Amino acid sequence: MKPTAKSAADALYQTARWLLDSGRPRDAADVFRAMATCAPREERAWLGLGVCHEQMDQSEVALQMYSVGQMASAPAPRCALAMALLLRQLGERDELTEVLDSAARAAELAGDDEMSTLIEKERHLS
Amino acid sequence: MTYINPTTASSAVTTASAPVASATTSASLLPPAQLGGDLGDALAVMLTLSTKLHAASSEGSKAQIREAHEQKKAEIKKEIDAQREEAEARRQSSGGFFGAVKHLAQTYTKDLVSMRPENFVAPGIGAFAKDLFTDPATSRDLKQIFSSPAMRWVGVAAAVAACVATGGVGTPFAFALAGALLTSASAAQEQFHFMGDSKWAQWASTGMAVGGAACTMGAGCGNAGWQMTVKGATNVASGTIAAGAGAGEIAAARFDKKADDAHADALEARLAAARMQRLIENIVEFLKEDSETQRKETSHVQKAAEANNATLVAATSLRV
What we know:
Structural class of chain A: mainly alpha
Shape of chain A: globular
Strand content of chain A: under 5%
Number of strands of chain B: 0
Oligomer: heterodimer
Order of helices and strands of chain A: HHHHHHH
Helix content of chain A: over 70%
């Protein structure tokens, strides 16, 4: 079978997700990083990297990954929402509203109703 | 669309219309792994990619091994050629015992050496000479015999002539004859001092004894190292033995520069071959470790598939 870029990205995501679920964020980050290198427009790769760094208590790095993900794989409502959640967790409320607005716009652009609903929920909680 | 969040404690099931749970985390935002469909293909791709990666690495290593083998073969051949060249250089060297014997003969027996060598190879003459030197019954007369300048060096000359004549042919008889004569001459010198009492003569006597033994050994095993080409034998180059030189130098061969260089080349080639061998061993060890790594990675991917299958089952059972 001849591998395609998408199938390779899916395979990498599958493996990285399994590693993350197995409690191995450092190993998962390596695979997510490889996925981001192979497919930089894949939102899942940047989101996964951010999640890994959060679990490794590297919040600043996670925020950077979410930011890069929003630029590289725009629109990226999941990265935007993940960034907002992290900012709230860190107590950075000044930027929280702006980021949530950005997430809402991204979800609307992506036509992702599920994410739009989730973002609205988080707005109310904020 | 529904999905399962496997990372949160409370697995929240969401639908397009129902509000999500408040415990939303960034991890829960990760979409689930692809369910059904081409999941197997994705894993197959992963395995294929992994195999291709290791195959490329393995091929590269195998190519390195092949190259190292060829280089080692070349180094070994170089060593063999260098040793062959070294042996040839020694053989043709003007040094060595026979060089010293030739010098001795030339210096003290010019008149006898100029005679045809084959006249001294006849068994009868050889036996006569041997008897002369070794038979105790005639020893009393030997001193008188050796007082004659012409006869003084007959034993030595005969031995040299025999060696010269048989150079390149090396018949065992000639070697044995030369050996007997040289040994006898040495004994005669020790007993009668017919070569005089100089320090050089004393060393020459020892050299002749060694040469006698060597010739006998050459006759016994036909050692080519003791042979000389006729051309080389007749080319009386400067001997390695100067007047007053020690018996050890008479008996030992001295390498000329060509032999030294060949020896150095042989040593260098031998060391290079050893380095190649170590490189090959290191590459083989790397391949073993690489195979083990690939086995572990394949195991991870397979476990990922098994975990995903379990997730798929769980998701199917909880789907609403």
